[in-house]
Design brief:
2 domains; globular; alpha+beta; Aminopeptidase; single chain
Length: about 350
């Protein structure tokens, strides 16, 4: 793995003897990383580094907030807030879910080196990750379709497949007007197998992939917006608390890990800035449409059909246009960042 001197060594994750393959693969991954020394501790076989050292290495200011519970790393364009024993940190106020919880020891908060390399560094210094991708041809994936209705709100006559297609078409028009090339994984109400969506994007040489979805939950109180990036190798997805042997698998989409999280950041930031909250943050998952990608990609959840007031807003064409505009502006912000580091 080619990296600049920003990188910290990764510590082995020892789960149990039954997952020897995970430990062997992780060891190989560790050996390929560039080592930067720092104050580290070990917990459950995982290496952690204290945030003061991280701040010093990356040029952040660092200090405790007034509540003495939150530790802040501050740079001109990036503010990171972390609490002890939490998988959630805040990037410029946006929730972002880590692979492993932070630790508190010797009056310091420690971040796993895995999360440092896979989450914080791509946002702080994406130039360190080698070749910068293009951002000219955008693949828009309207979720579900045909026999697959996705989430529904029958009382309001809403279906996820129709809403995602509507927003996808609106986003397409904005992108075309902005000078982008656009690829649609589906152009009508048809069922497209999940595995074919990434294949279609690859065949059309897409530079970026965005899969559009709407949410639903058993709780009628759940609402807000969230963006998913592919879970990095050796990490558990956000919905799980522990890793297992399957997390040792590296997918095609993991070759884009630094750019996936960078794209997710700008998409989620603009989504919340345009639409308001709640900001459900950036999460990790191994969705099929993300695993097989050969370009940076994210999956967005643009509201809950199970939340009555959120669902009612989706009846408005103006609201759906604002959703499309927020996604467009997120892509523009991502493209601008890429141009800054090329």
């Amino acid at each position: 793995m080619s990296r600049k001197a920003w990188f910290f060594s990764l510590g082995c994750i020892h789960i149990c003897s039954r997952v020897l393959v995970l430990r062997m693969l992780l060891a190989l991954f560790i050996c390929s990383a560039t080592i930067v020394s720092g104050r580290t501790i070990q917990s459950d076989g995982l290496q952690y580094i204290d945030l003061v050292t991280v701040a010093n290495r990356l040029g952040f200011k660092s200090y405790w907030l007034a509540d003495n519970k939150t530790f802040r790393l501050s740079a001109p364009n990036l503010v990171v807030d972390a609490n002890a024993q939490s998988r959630k940190i805040y990037i410029n106020g946006m929730p972002l879910y880590l692979g492993f919880p932070t630790l508190f020891s010797n009056n310091q908060i420690y971040l796993s080196v895995v999360d440092l390399n896979q989450t914080l560094l791509p946002l702080q210094n994406p130039r360190a990750f080698g070749d910068v991708p293009n951002c000219k041809r955008i693949a828009i994936d309207a979720g579900h379709g045909g026999k697959d209705h996705g989430a529904t709100n029958l009382s309001l006559g809403l279906s996820e497949k129709a809403l995602s297609f509507d927003v996808a078409r609106r986003l397409q028009q904005l992108l075309l007007k902005g000078g982008f090339e656009v690829v649609q994984t589906r152009r009508e109400d048809v069922y497209i197998p999940l595995e074919n969506r990434a294949i279609h994007a690859e065949q059309r040489s897409a530079d970026l992939f965005i899969s559009i979805h709407f949410n639903a939950a058993e709780s009628k109180e759940a609402y807000g917006y969230e963006t998913f990036a592919l879970t990095p190798q050796f990490q558990a997805s956000t919905r799980y608390t522990k890793i297992d042997a399957n997390d040792a698998i590296s997918f095609d989409g993991n070759h884009q890990d630094p750019w996936n999280i960078l794209l997710a950041y700008f998409v989620q930031q603009n989504l919340v800035d345009h639409m308001g909250g709640p900001d459900r943050g950036i999460k990790r998952a191994r969705f099929k449409v993300l695993k097989d990608l050969r370009c940076p990609g994210v999956l967005v959840e643009l509201g809950f059909l199970s939340h009555r007031s959120s669902a009612k807003r989706l009846l408005s064409k103006m609201h759906r246009q604002r959703l499309a505009q927020s996604l467009y502006d997120g892509i523009i912000a991502y493209q601008k960042r890429l141009r800054q580091i090329q």
